[in-house]
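Chain and conformation:
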Amino acid sequence: MSDSLTIALMLRFDAESVAAIQAADSRIRLLDYGHVLRGTAPEGDDKQRLLASLADVEVMVGTNRLGIEYFDAAPRLRWFQAMNAGLERLDALGLLQRGFAVTNASGLNAAPIAEWVIAAMFSLGKLFPAYIRNQQQHSWERVRGAMQMEGKTCGVVGMGAIGRETARKARAMGMRVVASRRTVTGDDPDCDQLLPYSELHQLLAQSDFVVLCVPLTSETRHLIDEAALRAMKPTASIVNIARGGVIDQDALVVALTNGTIASAALDVTTPEPLGPESPLWGLPNVLITPHVSSSSDRIDGAAGALFIENLRRFLANEPMLNLARPELGY
C-alpha cells in the first residue's frame, strides 16, 4: 500500500464507528459523505465537486443503491463494501465485473430480519390483520381460523445467514423446518429436512409458511410463479424478505384473491415503493411493510464493526468476509 489510503464513506456511520475507522491505520485519509448522501443526493456543482474528490479513492463503503457515476469517478477503487446483502443492482450495472473486490453485508441484519419473519408469521397465523381492521371499526367480532404455530411447518427458501437464523428461531418455537438451498451436500443441523432448489415444489407442498430468503438473480427471478403458488397448501402463507422480483407479483395477487393460498406478508415488492394503484394494498389477507425488516436499534454499531473487521483484513491482505462471486451475481 502507498503512504496513504483514501476511504470514502458513502453512507452514514455513527461517530464511534467513524473514529474507529480513522484509527485503524495512520495512513487512512477519510472522506465522510454519509451526511451528504443520507437525504437528497447533491446536484449540479456540489455533485461535481464530490465526484472529483473521489479520484484517489481506493476503498468505498455504501449501499447497493449508489449510482454508477460514483464508481466511474473512482478509477483507483480496489474494494467496495456494500452494506446490503443483495447485490443485484450492482450486478445489473456490471460493477461486479469491474475488477475491484466487492463485499456485501450478509449476516449483518440476520437477527432483526428473522425477528420480523417470526412476527409476520404470528401476525398472519393469529389473524392480527383482521383484528386490527375490527379495532379500527370498533367491532368486537371473533375471527375463525387462527393457527397454533407449534407443530406447523416453516419452509425456508435459501439457507444463507437470514434463512438460517429464521430456521433456528422457528425451531425454537416448536415448528418443523424444511429448507432449500442451491447446493445440498448432506443434512443440516438447523433444519429437519434440506432440499435442493430443484425440489422446491416438495418444500412448498408441505409448508404452512414459506419464507423467501434468496438473493435476486437470473436463477431466482419469479422463482415463485403461478405453478409454485398452486403447489402450496390453500391454508399456507408466504413471507417475502428477499426481493420483490423473486415472486411473480401478478400471479401472487390472483392466488391471494381466489384462495390458492391463505395470506402473505411482504417487506419487499415490485416496484418499490409499491404504487398506490397496486391491488395488494386492498387485499385483507396481506401484510405490507416498506422494506424495513432489517431495522434495528443496534444496526449502526454492527455495520461499523463489519466494515472495520473487513478493513483490518484488507490492510493485512487477508481474505475478506462476504466476498462477492461475480459469476453468481451475489
